[in-house]
Amino acid sequence: MGELRRNGMAVAGLAACVFMGAVAYGWPAPARPDAAAGKTVYASNCVACHGEDGAGTPTGQALNAPDLRSDAVQKASDADLKQQVMNGKNNMPPFKDTLKPAEVDDVIAYVRTFAHKK
Q1: What is the pLDDT along the chain (118 residues), one digit of tens a residue?
Q2: Percent of the chain as helix, strand, coil, to the nearest 5
Q3: Are 65 and 100 part of one and the same domain?
């Protein structure tokens, strides 16, 4: 058990050194999803079916687009939502050739803001 603990501490120490080295060399930190940027992407790619507030447009409702404010959508994991946006689902087309993965992350961050608009 002592050896395992020593090895675990060594791994943690190595990870800290790598992180500090990255900071020292000015490597950028991974970007966090940006809901404000996601709003712009949403307006260009999603609003026609999902509507400005996520409730859905008549076109989206005819295609059975989900209400993005709903508990079902809001409780879905980011990974599940990303998979749906990238690969499409039911009547929704895939956006993997249209949006960059970071843009999808931003859209998901924006969609999360709909939970409070219901």
Answers
A1: 555 455 555 555 555 554 555 555 666 666 799 999 999 999 999 999 999 999 999 999 999 999 999 999 999 999 999 999 999 999 999 999 999 999 999 999 999 999 977 6
A2: 65, 0, 35
A3: yes
